[in-house]
Amino acid sequence: MYSPPTDPADQQRMRRAFAQSAETLGATVTGAEVWGWHGRTLSARAQDPDQRACWLRLLSAPEEKAAGKIWEGNREAAALFDGRIRKPLLYGTTQSSSDGYAYRAELHQYIAEPVLSASPVLRTGPQPSAGWWESLRTDLEYVSGTPTDRVAVRQEWVDRAVPRFLQIPDPQITYWTTAHGDLHTANLTSTTPYLLDWEGFGLAPAGYDAAMLLAYSLLVPEFAHDIHDTFSVLKTEPGRVAQIIVITELLQSASRGDHPELVPALCALAAELA
Question: Could you tell me which residue ranges the Aminoglycoside phosphotransferase domain spans (predicted)?
Fold first, then answer.
């Protein structure tokens, strides 16, 4: 899933746009290419004109779809959170288009710490320090209290999807907070931690980030237990609703081929919650 586009022509199109974006931003690429989810992004380590270590990330979309939450997410997150929580700073952006595609390139602060896992699904048990958990909880509390008009989860989707995938009545979201929106161990570094990849942040049910981290970590019970201990919201009714919604999202994703190995654990947790 984190792989180049299946069409070689799309790979070459992305590489050309990446090289052009680096030139526009004055960046020198110094690292190997890293492809994102289904080849939608292309990134690499780079240096900016001030010789700072950076991470150059290129997002691509058909021109008619180059707008909205995902397209603007990292830029809008930088305006709200840079320097206030532990996330990579955004140094600069550029946008271009050609052959019916639009491109947004972002030059971020390079974070040398490794992530907790290479995949969103946690498969082996990391052992973060107590300070790591406290830092994560503090930053997510700051995020949750930050006003935004962006929306990460919609009640209308919940009304349709929960009965379809869980065969239970759709829960009503009564308490909304701002969420990172894609919190899993591939978006958390192992020491500080830094929170990476902000393109999906927005309003979500209270406890959504904790529920997402938990759902992706169900194959490692010890780590899942630590999540429960750290985020008391998971023991509340809003937290139960958030878990049901996240489980539904991941079951829908699995129906399209993403992380099917999680399905038994997701269904077991849903049975407990329902």
Answer: 160-230
The phi and psi torsions of 226 (rounded to 5 degrees) equal -65, -35
- Note the pLDDT tens digit of each residue in 11-46: 999 999 999 999 999 999 999 999 998 889 999 999
HSE, side-chain direction, 13 A CA sphere, residue 21: 30
DSSP for 162-229 reads HHHHH-SPPPPP--EEEE-S--SGGGBBSSSPPB---TT-EEEETTHHHHHHHHHTTTSHHHHHHHHH
143-181 burial by CB neighbour count: b if 16+ within 10 A, else e?
bbeeebebebbeeeebeebbeebbeeebbebeebbbbbb
Q: Which two tokens stand for residue 196?
A: 């990476």
How far is 83 from 60, CA to CA, in rounded Å?
27
Q: What is the pTM of this model?
A: 0.95
Q: What is the token pair recorded at 264?
A: 């038994």
> What backbone phi and psi angles, to 5 degrees, belong to 128?
-65, 155
* CATH numbers and ranges of domains, the chain: 8-109 (3.30.200.20), 130-273 (3.90.1200.10)
Contact 81, 66 (CB under 8 A): no
User: b vs e for 187-203, b when ≥16 Cβ sit within 10 Å of the residue's Cβ?
Assistant: bbbbebbbbbbbbbbbb
The amino acid at 236: T
Peptide bond into 193 cis (omega under 30): yes
- The residue whose two tokens read 């779809």 is 65
